[in-house]
Sequence to fold (386 residues):
Amino acid sequence: MFLDAVRRRNPGLLRFAAQLHRSGVIPPNTFVFDRGAVRRNAERLAERAAALGLDLYYMAKQIAYDAQLVAAIRSCIPGAVAVDWMGAEALLAQGAKVQHVGHLVPIPARLVPALMAQARPEVWTLLDLEAAEAVNRAALALGRVQSVLLRINGGDFFPGQEGGFAPEEVLAAATTIARLPGLRLSGVTSYPCFTWDEEATRYRPTANLEALVTSAERLRAAGFSIEQINAPGNTSLSVLPLLAQYGASHGEPGHALTGTTPEQSLGSSEEEPAVVYVSEVSAQLSGGQALAYGGGLYARAHARQALVGTGPEELEESAPVTVRFPPPQFIDYQCLLEPPRGRHLPTGATVLMAFRFQLFVLRSYRAVVEQDGEGTWRLLTLTPPF
Fold:
């Protein structure tokens, strides 16, 4: 369980998050981030990637592009990948380097010129040849040659993330791109290239990775200089050696930065757990159940337990209670808490959880905290203000 990992490896974060809530400094529906742990995770990822000859672009959508956290990450991993044009804009507004755009969500044609002028990304991913024409026109208008990646379709996509070129289509696409003077084909990418196998409790390559490697081989055999094989998907300290093993050049860590990778649910992740979710008991139900405020209850979170209490001792010493999120087709106004028979969860009690999240699609507060060299925790920012 993610909660077990935080209790064992970062108990100070749990205690301080509870203190902030009990004192009224933060409201329910707040994600509390340990900036120091995020920075240490970024440092470890950068060091291991360098040792393996890999490059990284960080993904910041999970943390809603929080400026405090982005600053900690970019001190170790300089360049970012933007999941969409809104993410690129949020990062650029902070002065961050956006090095990869256009992958999961293509850039709208009308926004291509402005984004290219502002970001001047290292690579721009193309899902079709019409996008190639738009990116080519923008590059020529700026007097530059834009390096591009072909998005490879291995057929193993999440719904809403389809698109790209099948391995048998890459040579024709590359030949067309070679005729466009504003573009230079520099590589291939896909997503996800690695996935977590729940039964085997390990990461495994996907059909997308196989298609990615095959496409790179075909392009190189045809004389194209393929410098980047970008294989995102669960990029973490455990997956980095797999990237090197399969011949990839780049990875894109996201959840690894906050220690919320799938293996953290087993307590076996090398990354430090760096975030907790704070809620509050909102109402009582017949039969001893209770409700807690939502807003950040991400449907794919796999949260199962919560700590509930009105003070630090109860939160630390009481056994976790079962938590049930609403089904994904419903709005996450509240979640259900199921204590053991005889235990009462009073309205207003603090609720602490830990799970995977995607803050950019949620309506939550975010608090960034840090522990100084003397062990004192302090609140750095709360967004939006409360």
The longest strand covers residues 275-284. The mean pLDDT is 96. The radius of gyration is 22 Å. The longest helix spans residues 35-51.
